[in-house]
Amino acid sequence: MSNQPLVSIRDLKIGATTDAGRRVEIIRGVSFDIQPGEIVALIGESGSGKTTIALSLMGHTRTGCGIDAGTIRIDQHDVTAMSEAKRARIRGTEVSYVPQSAAAAFNPSQRIIDQVIEVTAIHKLLDRDAAEKKAVELFRALALPNPDTIGARYPHQVSGGQLQRLSAAMALIGDPKLVIFDEPTTALDVTTQIEVLRAFRSVMEKGGMAGVYVSHDLAVVAQIADRIIVLKSGEIQEEGTAQQILDAPTHPYTRELLAAFEPVPHVPLDVPQDASRQPILEVRNLSAGYGPVRNGEPAAKILKDINFRLQPGKNLGVIGESGSGKSTLARAISGILPPYQGEVVVNGVVQEPSLAQRSKEQLRHAQIVFQLPDTALNPAQPIGAILARPLRFYHNMRGAACEARVIELLDMVQLPAALRHRLPGELSGGQKQRVNLARALAADPKLILCDEITSALDTVVGAAIIELLKELQRELELSYMFISHDLSTVEAICDDVLVMYKGEVVEALPAARMSEDARHPYSRLLVSSVPKLDTGWLAGLEQDPELIARFANR
Amino acid sequence: MKPTTSPFRFMSPRQMGYSFNWVGRIGLAVIVFWALVAIFGPMLQPYSPGEIVDWDYFGPMTHQYLLGTDYLGRDVLSRILMGARYTVGIALVSVFLACAGGVVLGMVAAVIGGWFDMILSRLLDAFNGIPSLLFGLVVVAAVGSSIPVLVMTLAAIYLPGAYRFARALAVNVNTMDFVTVARARGEKTPYLILREIFPNILGPVLADLGLRFVFIVLVLSGLSFLGLGVQPPYADWGALVRENIGALSFGAPAIIFPSVAIASLTISVNMFIDNLPTKIRDRS
User: Fold this and answer.
1) Distance (Å, whole) CA B106 – CA B174
2) Which of A355, A370, A376 lies at the smallest CB-CB distance from B186?
3) CB contact under 8 A, B184 and A368
4) Chain B nearest-CA residue for A375
5) What is the pTM of this model?
6) Tell me, what's the ipTM?
7) How far is residue B14's CA from residue B21's CA, in Å, rounded to a whole number?
8) CATH number for B32
9) Chain A interface test: which of B14, B176, B185 (most A C-beta within 10 Å)
């Protein structure tokens, strides 16, 4: 029996019932095996069915979905044929799950240790003392700080990266044979991600457990998986070892995924640059914050003394991790959050601090596009009305002229004109983000502030948006301020980059030479933390532990 | 059922997602019935509602007097038909006043925020603390009972609740990015509340409107029962119950049918709003 794979899935079909009562197939006949001790990655875009497959390994499907056909076998257990009570018995002991958002998976009102050892109590595996001892061992193996006492804390008292590792401890405590990781590092900062990935890898290697790693990020998967399965709309496109998928992909879709990962080098727009030309955006000594204002200063100061210039036709990237103040910078420039010190100069005109004081014409020049396409469009208005409003507001355009311009705008963002009759809920994420851009363009702006506009999108869709931005820039001589936590997208579109850390600009770099020119220790750490498409990258990565201790908020 | 593929689809309510279940339909049917009665009732009255037609009081149901006679020997059917106009009419006007006022103020408070929100909220909270029947009693006792006074009193009683409800919903919508975008565009408060926020809170607000209508019918009936509502010789359903309270011990139709009228209206409104079409209910 030594040659038998640990897990085998044969011709799995999972269907779901839509709101309209129609039955749709989500997973269409997927088959694969997992050998003992092997980590298999499921990779694909949103909607490809990767999480659905991973959950089905526990015999679980989301509400409204159901396993229609096929078999799932884990070790001796035929998961598909089991009763729900029996399935509950293997969860935690044979197969366990590490969720995407550890913060949502922990109960905020219970101590961590109680939640971690809950599995042993449910399955009556160990008594409490032994379970706690084992939990502490796991904490140590996962390189958590203060392993002896961290369990006594509440979930909000540890950082996001630590919580993610603690949720792995929760999954591992029942000694499962198979661990399912569902995008466990997607919500983490890059510098944090490295430590979490390292901890996962070492603990899986030591325990000899098999794993399923669900992710959309090829570079992350390359560090941890032995084998990669590429999925698209519920079907396997390609299956192979990690090395083979990265080096010699055979399926065109895999190549497309890899191509989206390789940044297309940014060709700067050919505009006459001389010192006499007015910058499109200049920020001087800008400080902003939130909370009640006392003596002209808010209680929580976020931005401290920001200075930079952006020449017309150029793009400025702003990078930094969560909490670095990059979104606050965009809000302060656009006037949504009035800065308490310093000034913002757009096209040579000093802007009033708050929105109410700025004129329509001032507001028109700088438009902002937000991260989440779902919340940035009014769900009750059709696309046509959403785009027509700025036309009417800024240009007093009405009737047929307005309609024609709406169609033109949709064409500029490469959407069909018929889309204007639809509601935002009927569009895909990429389409919504294009409509967002079109709405900004409707104002005929000179500057567009892009706040993480590709972060919520799939890699391929995001890459297409970047291409669109470049094309629009060539046609309309726009300038972008491009905020992102993803260095490769910034590299793909920006001329210069500001590195932000805790509300301050620590360094300004040319985008093309970020890794070579970075001098400040934090920018060096950030640049070196971005995963590369190379299976040996994490193992070979050496970072100064002192730097990490200083800057990474783990 | 095959979905139509033509680009010009004529969608039935079911396909648009506006269909709803049988409980809701029954509720709607009863509401429509009472609405028609309120409009056309006076034409259908077999007798004048104030006319004493029978020497017997609390008479039984006969062919001549379909729902019996009341404590003065008046025809109960005619009086219920007349009462429908008062009960439904006063309740409808008050509920629209209360909800319109409350929702507009709630949205304005959510959009403007700060001190304006704080003062308005505390003020209406304090007002909300006064028991509704007691407030009605005091106002009617002080100003005297007339239909405009009743409408204004009932609207005033239920405005703070509508305000609270709408404000809570509007605060959530107000933090969404699309409202921030509209603000950054330079839009003013009227546009923000009318176009960006109101359509997104409409579903719950409609449900709240129905619920509040029920409360108003009950308070109005309560006021009339206490003798402070619609004054004789006219009567709404609450007043009919009060007039004929003596019939309780005989189990005469004169007290049963006004009570049934109140119950059927309030319960059917509840049934209808609990089963609103999903597309309206789940809008936000």
Assistant:
1) 12
2) A355
3) yes
4) B177
5) 0.80
6) 0.79
7) 11
8) 1.10.3720.10
9) B185
